[in-house]
Design brief:
2 copies of one chain form a homodimer.
Chain A: H1 6-22, H2 27-41, H3 50-63, H4 71-90, H5 97-108, H6 120-131, H7 140-147, E1 151-155, H8 161-174, E2 178-183, H9 194-199, E3 207-210, H10 225-233, E4 236-240, H11 241-248, E5 255-260, H12 264-270, E6 277-281
Parallel strand pairs in A: 1-2, 1-4, 2-3, 4-5
Antiparallel strand pairs in A: 5-6
Chain lengths: 290, 290
């Protein structure tokens, strides 16, 4: 797992502020929500993950009566991703379909309405900008060797990019691999839940499984027993996005992280520049590093 | 006075985060500072001014041993303003020197290293961008009538723009007016203190007076008795910048606000677009509005 930095505190509080605008709180409610969020954040301990800290902000939000504040935004993201998918499919390189699909799915991770100044146009531009880069995939050959006609678990991140994840699922089942696509148990930020995955067309290619997680990133201990059993059984796990990386970093070396590095902290950790598409194998960490 | 909005909470906390970078705190110290700042901010009450809230962040900073974190930055600001002044003086319109000087001083308010993404180049560009706009000065004729060959108090804001304020002081003394230039009692953010005013050349034109204030904005009750007496005596007060406006808004109608509107909250209040240069007379407010 990855601990939050001081920069994360600023980023998470700014997210909380932007949520007050997204859900249309009036000034009086925004004020009360942010003061309560400050109070909660002031009790953060060093070593806490961004996932756990963000979850606490959502707990405050739920106490304020907002259980699915990104519902509408997720609909728009899925629409945008569908539009991009239909453009992309024309030029799809069938020769190395799996690699191409991984690249597109990684770039899809940039379609994140949780980011600063996010709008349909900015996200579309950012996606195309990431698409022009080369996928950093030093462990791709190793990944192919590990696939071995087996079962693969794909852990989804945001609703929207989930539409583009279907390309990876499609390429995997072409190889006779059975794929599971894990979603969050409840709405948290813009993360993909069961209904979003269905709306994204994931069920055409994979069995959608509920991870049991209520966190905006996969922390194994917080998932259901059934999910943990599935995780154990699959020979390869594709973990999508930053939140899942924060939870799984250093935990299991059958995990491959697929994402766009969207913050300087994660970019530095992966030794890439910001907004690079990345596909790397997880390494086991000693406790001092995790 | 102007109360803080929920947006101010986000802005002030982001300032606190940027201060950790400006003063070169390491990660461990940054974390402790931000957690303590969150704790302090979580006890903010509705109705508190941005000035008071920001002061509390500086109290935390002082407890961490940083009493003048913007010292170096203030030196750079003064240098930058001197460079801009020497460019400007060539084209200075002597026909309406006072109006021109007010415009330049207002635009100088954009030279604020406290702003997001501030760098020498960005601030220079922003200054020139504001200079291309028209000074919004609906009360200028009234101001001229009120001047009446008397004493004027000019309340300084940031070190740097203080160099450009000297143009206003020069134009006033040409009219035989005696001018006082008020500075903060102690360093707070990048606000002008006695030594900064001297370095800016203010003492050539005006008597520099210590307001007694330790706040990043002028709140009359927090100033010295001598300053309050001076404030009472002068027939016109020019209040520079947002912080002083936040403290003096609605308080006395002999005050004229001279500034660049640097945040949406203040721009909306003054009914101008962001980054407009403004010179407007204060209006007395009923308690419910203040």
């Amino acid at each position: 797992m990855i601990s939050a930095t001081s920069r994360c505190l600023d980023c998470i509080f700014n997210q909380a502020y932007r949520i007050t605008r997204n859900v249309g709180m009036d000034e009086e409610e925004s004020w009360r929500f942010l003061i309560e969020t400050m109070d909660v954040l002031s009790r953060t301990r060093r070593g806490d993950t961004p996932i756990h800290i963000t979850r606490r902000v959502y707990d405050v939000l739920e106490r304020f009566g907002y259980s699915d504040p990104f519902r509408e935004i997720k609909r728009h993201s899925i629409e945008l991703a569908r539009e991009l998918l239909s453009d992309i499919e024309k030029d799809f390189d069938m020769d190395d379909g799996l690699f191409e699909a991984l690249k597109i799915s990684a770039a899809g991770n940039a379609l994140d309405f949780g980011l600063k100044d996010a709008s349909i146009d900015i996200l579309r531009d950012r996606f195309l900008q990431v698409m022009r880069k080369t996928l950093y995939a030093p462990d791709y050959e190793e990944f192919l060797r590990m696939l071995d006609g087996d079962e693969v678990l794909f852990i989804g991140d945001n609703a929207g990019e989930s539409v583009l994840d279907t390309l990876v699922l499609r390429e995997l089942i072409k190889q006779g691999i059975r794929v599971y696509y894990a979603v969050r148990h409840v709405p948290v930020i813009n993360d993909v839940i069961y209904e979003d995955a269905v709306e994204s067309g994931v069920d055409e290619y994979a069995e959608i499984v509920d991870s049991g997680s209520e966190y905006p990133g996969l922390v194994l201990e917080e998932t259901s027993r059934e999910f943990q059993e599935l995780f154990r059984r699959c020979s390869v796990v594709i973990s999508k996005g930053q939140g899942n990386l924060e939870g799984l970093y250093g935990v299991s070396d059958k995990v491959f992280f697929l994402l766009t590095a969207k913050c300087p902290h994660i970019a530095k950790l992966l030794k890439v520049s910001e907004f690079s598409p990345v596909f790397v194998r997880n390494r086991l960490l000693s406790n001092t590093e995790s």
